[in-house]
Design brief:
There is one protein chain. The strands form 4 sheets. This protein has a 4-stranded mixed sheet with strand order 6-7-8-9, sandwiched between helices. A 3-stranded antiparallel sheet has the order 1-2-3. The protein is of the alpha+beta class and 395 residues long. The chain has 17 helices and 12 strands. The termini are far apart. InterPro entries: WH-like_DNA-bd_sf. This is Zinc-ribbon domain-containing protein.
Length: 395
Amino acid sequence: MAKRKTHEEFIQEVKELYGNEYEILGEYKGANIKILVRHNICGHEWEVIPSNLLRGQGCPVCSGRTTKLGVNTIWDTDRWMVDLGVFEEDAKRYSKCSNKKITVKCPDCGREKKTKPYVIYDNKSIFCSCGDGKSYPEKFIFNLLEQLDLEFETEYKSRWSNDKRYDFYMKNKSCIIEAHGGQHYDKGFKSIGGRTFKEEQANDKFKRDIALKNGIKHYVELDCRNSNLEWIKNSILNSELNDLFDLSKVNWNKCVEFANKNIVKEVCDYWNNRKDGETTADVGQVFKISRTSVINYLKKGAKLRWCNYNVKEEIIKCGKKSGGYNKRKVEIFKNNQSLGIFPSCTELERQSEELFRVKLWNSAISEVCNNKKSQYKGFTFKYVEDNNSNISKIA
């Protein structure tokens, strides 16, 4: 029968394995009888089976198996999650990696829902229905470009892009930026009905190739698979953006602050304090988003009582503001044959169903005229310069 290990022998084995990292507080009585131990790095004391400790099963707090207030709870390591809706009580009970369902409360609209801490930590969002639908990396990069005082477009689409959209486009730099999440590297969205990983990679290659073939000089793809400051910051600093722009004065914490904001709420707050005469188009220019997005955000905000927005009143106001200035004649084509000239995109939309048996929306017509779409429902359009030519009778 093998001789039982002595207390001193056990202490010596622990020291050989861990150095002075652990202090044995209890009396060793056998390989499978729990003994009290202190982790000298974090101060946590717990009872462990000696054989497990010798097999490398160290401090449960530092490894994340156990949470301890003052060491590794959300309250200690990632208190920003409280700002997103995690209650203080839960923040002091669970770690950021917990898969325990908790109740959170949206700081914007007050709705409560159940979710898991690790989901909030990974995505920097509780995914409330009042949200703006923009990812953390997109909003992070948006603020970066604003700090650099650059002119840029979001969700850019061109005549040559085959209806593909790009996250950011800077015309004066001939530069496109794509913020790639985890699905571009190892996941894909097949499990939720989206593209597989291989399909995602093929789509990335197609978008890259078609952009470069059409004269884009700088095509920057940022690895944003992890939604945290250091990861995205390092991705930016190690990209061509660091050669194109001076990033030395960027306030990275401002990028984080903006990334955690709800743009729907921001747009509604701006709308409530807008200047006389400002329209949804003006707000779109401020936030560098389309007028359609502004309208959708304001409609959502109106339902949440964040703002007063009346679609009909806004249409009348836009019409008065334009005063004919923004009314540009537009010509419609089918198979390169002109079907007529209309006083405006709005008028073409109004008559489209009667004349062409299909509803043609003003915004889509405008996108074709501005080279953001190659065609729309089989038709093409172009603006007509006002040289006193007669408007077609069809209009």
